[in-house]
Amino acid sequence: MRIYISGKITGLPFREVEHKFQSAQNFLEGFGFEVVSPLKNGLSQSHTWQQHIVRDIEMLLPCEAIYMLNDWADS
User: Fold this and answer.
1) pLDDT digits over 16-72, tens only?
2) DSSP string spanning 61-74?
3) What is the bridge-based pairing of β-strands 34-36 and 65-68?
């Protein structure tokens, strides 16, 4: 099963974001899931928020589930 990780990115220190998304990915992969992370969307931090959202939605669509981090509602 392919699972997309959803959580707040904008406005947080990038190290903190990387840590929480990697921790979630490690956790989910431990159960054998294929994990899709918005941090691995192929775009750099210099791309616009809109470009990231478009790419993230493209990545989300083929997923069967969403893993929502505690701060997902702020994402």
Assistant:
1) 999 999 999 999 999 999 999 999 999 988 999 999 999 999 999 999 999 999 988
2) TT-SEEEE-TTGGG
3) unpaired
pTM: 0.89
Question: Looking at the DSSP assignment, which residues form a beta bridge with residue 35?
Answer: 3
Closest residue by Cα to residue 24 from 11, 9, 13, 45? 9
Residue 35 tokens read as: 């994990």
Strand order, beta sheet including 65-68: 34-36, 2-6, 65-68
β-pair partners for 36: 4
